[in-house]
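Nitroreductase-like protein
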Amino acid sequence: MSLKSLVRILPEPVKDVLKAARDNTRLGMVRMFSSNGFMASLYYCLISREFDREHRAVLLGRLQFARLMQSKGENDAFLRRNVHRLEKGLIMRPRRSTFAEDYIGPTVRCFADATHAGVVTGQQRWANDVLTDYFSAVQSTPRIDSARREFSGTQRADDPNRCVPYPHSDLPECPVSYEQLMVLFRRRRSVRWYQDKPVSNELIEQAVRAATLAPSACNRQPFRFYVSNDAAKAADIAQCAGGTGGFHDNLPCVIAVVGDLGAYPEARDRHVIYIDGSLAAMQLMLAFESLGLSTCPINWPDIEEAERRLAKKLELAYHERTVMLLAVGYADPTGGIPFSDKKTEQDLIVFK
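Tokens:
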């Protein structure tokens, strides 16, 4: 007889005593090991292995970033970050006569590698235009002049629609009032019951186009949307999460928001994939709502068995981490929606 089978046949009062003893022991250990950083590290080395996947994923992400830097090709995250840094330097008040000396050389080399690949992307046009403005704005120094000479060999002709910083006054007028926006927010509910109706790929692409406009740290956008737009595949993916029991077979489409730790050379940025991925996911859900589609964000806790299952199904590298799952579809008008009372602004604001 297994231990679990033995526990099942125990009287409830005995189970309660054993559970209380187990919980008190765990809490006592947490109290002891939380006394300082060294003890906390010891706890997660000897007592709990719950952070093992994150630790290894961060290290493998750093290796992936290093491999991309050493290879002759475009390092998407590196180029995006540094071009964004150049833009911030160009809009600074007052603008310095020289800036970015410590990274302009590697940035130009990364741009040159991307250009030599022969495929012109929006990212390369953006980099070209910002670098052009940068070299027009800064004064001469040995490092800047060296990078300028290298850039001149790869610089493209100006496009009429240049991708460079612009004044706030150039933005379109906002046609949405606060009240209209609140209607959209109130309509965006976590929907678990859907019509038996397919979701078109065109609508998914349209919603993702809106999600790409979400803010992202240094504009890296270190995430992808893995779309399972088939009821059987969607159910198979949704079952990997722990909170979909009873309704996963009802989901016509599931999207996995996946972050890439290979976008960062340092462990300090390991949480950015969750921040940026969540910002994009929220914008994605609101976009779907505006297109007549409902959504349900599905929690993705760090559980090793579930991580392995989903990584295998989506063919993810170890340094790619799932941020959350999203169900998408046409809501069943008769399906129930939890009321989910929300905290008020008084509950959440702390003025200091």
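The longest strand covers residues 320-329.
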